[in-house]
Amino acid sequence: MATSTTKTESADIGDYLKVAACTAVILQSVLTLALKQPFSTTDQWIIGLSYNAVKFTAPAFIFGILFTTTRTTYPSQLSAYPHYLKRQWSALFIPSLFWTTIYLLGMPQLQQGTPFHSVKTFAWQFVNGNAAPHLWYNTMMLQFILLMPLFWWLARIATNPDRVKLILLMTLIGCALWVTFYDVTVWHGPHQRSWYLFDRFNLSFMGYAILGTLVARFSKPLAHKLACHRWLLRLSWCVLFGLTTAMLIYAGLPIHLNITSYIQPAMIGYDLVTIGLVVSLANNQIHRHARSVPVIHWLAIYAYRAYLANIFWLQLIWALGGRWLSVAPLPVIVSCYLVTWGCSFASAYGLHRLVQLF
After folding, report:
1. Which residues form the Acyltransferase domain (predicted)?
2. What pTM did the predictor assign?
């Protein structure tokens, strides 16, 4: 049996998920920074609800990455792992090393937790995702890159509906146990501060990786089912968004954007339904050969690198335009977001081209 199969590079639903996740995470960054300023009650609620609406980024990234990787490498064996890591080293690990260094040395004020004060603490901040507010995503997602042989194996054994159902049942049980453990011991438990790094541990998002792998194996029948039940998806989205909104309202003012966790049943349901809606949109666009398909594919190539860069550009843009926030809050937020998005993708493309020259 061949160790791997490389399929033609073309747009897929993973591309749509990666672009949606990157676009949303940049908005999360802008809203988080904006909410540190004094706002009217109305503006606070607008920011809080907007943040809740786009809080699907980490699950969507994982689902999208695993979908595309499975689609383009199935049926890879362990012997293909060194070649796979070599490709990911230049695509993901080098940009991660570059931007983490920039944040720690050039913008040390962005560190989360305890700032570094020695070589040892510098190294710890470098790997734990605390170098900048958004880099916890990076620490978490790179774990799935390293675990890829596990998902290759999963894709190879998922050969019929009965096995898929068994895998899904085991995944559901495992996720339920992990969410319960996290809720009791960390989120609402005695280790909320000391065990906070569990929010970036791979088990917290393993379900999305498994689903992304399985969907890549059975994308055609799933596309038909999603098309038949798109109204149910939309209704479910409204209900679950209403539930997460109720949690935000119950917490009251001032708005705290971390009041809902990715590792909560309501948010897990919301994220899954949102992913389903993006997948449904992607299937429709790809089936119709929409003009946006090649654009989405191009953006997806640079989405991860744009995500890494977004806080850097946001800090510079906010320093220039943030002073106008009190005059026109929402227009300033939207403008900062659009410029940050553009600069993030432009720098991702520019740095990639620059590296190619050498």
Report:
1. 15-346
2. 0.93
